[in-house]
Write a structure and sequence with these properties.
There is one protein chain. By secondary structure, the protein is an alpha/beta fold. The chain folds into three domains: about 55 residues, Alpha-Beta Plaits (2-Layer Sandwich), CATH 3.30.70.20; about 270 residues, no CATH class; about 70 residues, 3-methyladenine DNA Glycosylase II, Chain A, domain 3 (Orthogonal Bundle), CATH 1.10.15. It has 16 helices and eleven strands. Helix 3 crosses helix 8 and helix 4 crosses helix 6. The protein is elongated, with a radius of gyration of 26 Å.
């Protein structure tokens, strides 16, 4: 059984029209063909966008941005007690300080009252994942539910694989729920507690506020790693190690989730595939769909290269960040001052399973009924057959097939293809030449 509420229309990626120059960088890289360039400006189809953030990364003019909260959200008067839940990828951003307690202490100095590491919740999710694989009969391979961009991609492009999704909640959702309950055990009411996620990517920012496979989110705000990076670095530069609070939560294994292969390694799943980068993920999912990977137990799929440490809202190069993360984990496990406090999250106090069905996205792109859809697809094939099949992108669509769809479904003139325009001009020129030959001599002046 798969799990997901209908595809949310809220997105954490938006276009800044004034900065867009109408280049084709984003349309060529978008994995769901959600972007077009029309009238020299990019447009994003909210029905197709999966918030992966690829367009943010590749846009040379910074015309795409993630919609997240600023640090001023900490001052929201609604909340008497504010808990921050940092993604483990945050630790990988500080090249010269690999102490988790330094980062967590700096977060409290910024204005948070307490911290609960998402990596601690990741370890709980790992235990539940192992339980599912060992005790439950499910389709193989099971596909991790941790990356929301991958889940949205599957709902859109691989609907037949929805039942392969691991029915376990994402660490973000578990951490947020646990953070609220921890604060409530201290005497605060649920609505007096603010839970704020530090996110490495736009997809997680969207999922934190509009969760996949969950009834509701316990996250009250999302701050990007890029926005919190400089304030944290400035505080950490002034902190003496003697000032570090003992906040690390012994989540050394869970920290590995931030990089490709960490999730399956933490669960010690030997018969697993770890894949990163959406283009690579798509190829692996195509193999799953074709039945080529039925003998694999588990697939850990990350939209970003290197995993979350390579997210579009991070600061440090993903490959460098992976190396830093190794140092962070090693230091946290070996230095006594970093052994930290054990955070007690009683089993049963938080829901480790997805609670809403994840269904395929019902886009109805080709028509409202089967007859209309078949007719439109036939027309698309006819248009596509006339196109040059070189996928140049000059028409404003990512490839010739997408352009043929735009012509049939959106009424875009076929002459928007420069090759079709040349053909049309050549035909008109030939027609004019033929007409000139047929004109009476008295009209030609001869």
């Amino acid at each position: 059984m798969g799990y997901m509420n209908t595809m949310q229309k809220h997105h954490s990626v938006e276009l800044i029209p004034d900065k867009c120059i109408g280049c084709t960088d984003c349309i060529k890289r978008c994995p769901t063909e959600a972007i077009r360039v029309r009238n020299s400006k990019a447009t994003i189809d909210e029905n197709l966008c999966i918030d992966c953030g690829v367009c943010i990364r590749v846009c040379r003019n910074h015309a795409k941005r993630a919609v997240t909260n600023g640090l001023d959200v900490i001052n929201d008067k609604r909340f008497k007690y504010k808990v921050v839940i940092p993604a483990p990828s945050l630790y990988s951003q500080f090249l010269r300080n690999t102490s988790i307690n330094a980062v967590l202490t700096a977060l409290k100095r910024i204005g948070f009252d307490d911290v609960l590491e998402v990596s601690r919740a990741a370890e709980m999710v790992t235990e539940e994942t192992v339980k599912v694989l060992k005790e439950e009969a499910r389709l193989k391979p099971m596909i991790s539910s941790a990356c929301p961009a991958v889940i949205r991609l599957m709902a859109m492009r691989f609907p037949s694989l929805m039942d392969n999704i691991m029915p376990v909640a994402a660490p973000i959702d578990v951490a947020a729920s646990a953070a609220r309950r921890m604060a409530m055990r201290k005497g605060y009411k649920a609505d007096e507690v603010g839970v704020f996620f530090i996110s490495p990517c736009s997809a997680k920012a969207t999922a934190a506020m509009y969760p996949i496979g969950m009834e509701k989110s316990d996250v009250d705000g999302v701050i990007s790693i890029a926005d919190v990076y400089l304030p944290l670095r400035n505080i950490m530069a002034k902190l003496d190690p003697s000032e570090y609070e003992d906040l690390c939560q012994r989540s050394f294994e869970g920290m590995g989730w931030a990089a490709t292969g960490g999730e399956s390694a933490d669960a010690r799943i030997e018969n697993a595939i770890a894949v990163d980068g959406l283009e690579n993920v798509i190829r692996v999912l195509e193999q799953v769909e074709d039945g080529q990977l039925d003998d694999v137990d588990f697939i850990e799929a990350n939209a970003c290269m290197s995993g979350c440490v390579g997210g579009p809202l991070t600061v440090v190069n993903g490959y460098v960040a992976r190396n830093v993360l190794k140092k962070v984990r090693a230091n946290a496990a070996s230095i006594p001052t970093d052994r930290g406090r054990a955070v007690d999250i009683p089993k049963g106090s938080v829901n480790l399973r997805l609670t809403k069905k994840i269904s395929a996205a019902n886009l109805q792109r080709f028509g409202q009924d089967m007859g209309e859809a078949i007719k439109n697809m036939e027309d698309i094939e006819a248009i596509y057959a006339q196109l040059p099949h070189i996928d140049c992108g000059s028409c404003g669509a990512p490839n010739c097939n997408a352009f043929a769809e735009d012509v049939v479904l959106d009424g875009i003139p076929v002459e928007d293809c420069i090759f079709m325009m040349r053909r049309k001009v050549k035909e008109l020129a030939e027609e004019m030449a033929d007409l000139a030959k047929k004109m009476p001599q008295t009209m030609t002046g001869d």
